[in-house]
Design brief:
By secondary structure, the protein is an alpha/beta fold. The chain has one domain: Acetylglutamate kinase-like (Carbamate kinase). The protein has eight helices and eleven strands. A nine-stranded mixed β-sheet has the order 4-3-5-2-1-6-10-11-9, sandwiched between helices. The radius of gyration is 17 Å and the shape is globular. About 45% of the residues are buried.
């Protein structure tokens, strides 16, 4: 294992939208393969890696609820969408020769393993990439919260959120040209300024368990490996000095 690694066990959270590429819906196989290659690069460094992938490219619970659907039902549909994305990522990783397991918070043993904390840790110790599907298994919780929860349960050194931009900004940099980019933030600053990094429950959970959140661009080739090594361009969210 490389001596200069800053983090030894990490959770990577990526949105379902990140898998769409330029499409309006679903997955772009080329994008899925490219992200899988990013994970493979970090795995080769000797880092233990787990993932949480959103489902917004297929179905978003809040959007379903907005159309009059019962919120709990809509959220369960969103959880099933995350399973589809997780299986796609597992397939892409295994094509690259990376042993991968999908563990679902909703039992569906014909396609993936049920989530059992000790089993997940054992998979990671054996060098397998673990993908956590179906969120927390409960409605009214986002996949951001699921990511913070699983990172806490796995004892991860960091929670990395791969986005379309290279950090946290005061506003959407694609819409606001002079938006300020932050190098460092505290959990409380994110909450008090209502910065749309992750939802409040996820930020609070990471804070309670002292897990730093690193926001970086998953679209930059090699970006994931750079961040894990403490290099690259990202915003880090911690308790502060």
């Amino acid at each position: 294992m490389a001596a200069d690694l800053k983090y030894r066990r990490v959770l990577l959270k990526i949105s379902g939208e990140a898998l769409m590429g330029e499409r309006e819906y679903g997955q772009d196989p080329g994008v899925v393969s490219r992200i899988a290659a990013e994970v493979q690069d970090v795995h080769r460094l000797g880092v233990e890696v787990c993932l949480v992938i959103g489902g917004g490219n297929i179905f978003r619970g809040l959007a379903g609820a907005a159309t009059g659907m019962e919120r709990a039902t809509a959220d369960y549909m969103g959880m099933l969408a995350t399973v589809i994305n997780s299986l796609a990522m597992q397939s892409a990783l295994e094509r690259l020769g990376v042993a991968t397991r999908v563990l679902s918070a909703i039992s569906m043993q014909a396609v993936c393993e049920p989530y059992i904390r000790r089993r997940a840790i054992r998979h990671m110790e054996k060098g397998r990439v673990v993908i956590f599907a179906a969120g927390t298994g409960n409605p009214f919780f986002t996949t951001d919260t699921a990511a913070a929860l699983r990172a806490s349960e796995m004892g991860c050194n960091a929670l990395l959120k791969g986005t379309k931009v290279d950090g946290v900004y005061s506003a959407d940099p694609k819409k606001v040209g002079n938006a300020e980019r932050y190098e460092k933030l505290t959990y409380l600053e994110v909450l008090s300024r209502d910065l749309q990094v992750m939802d409040a429950a996820a930020i609070s959970l990471a804070r309670e368990n002292r897990i730093p959140i690193l926001v970086f661009s998953i679209q930059n080739t090699g970006g994931f490996a750079d961040v894990v090594s403490g290099r690259g361009r990202f915003t880090i969210i911690t308790e502060g000095s």
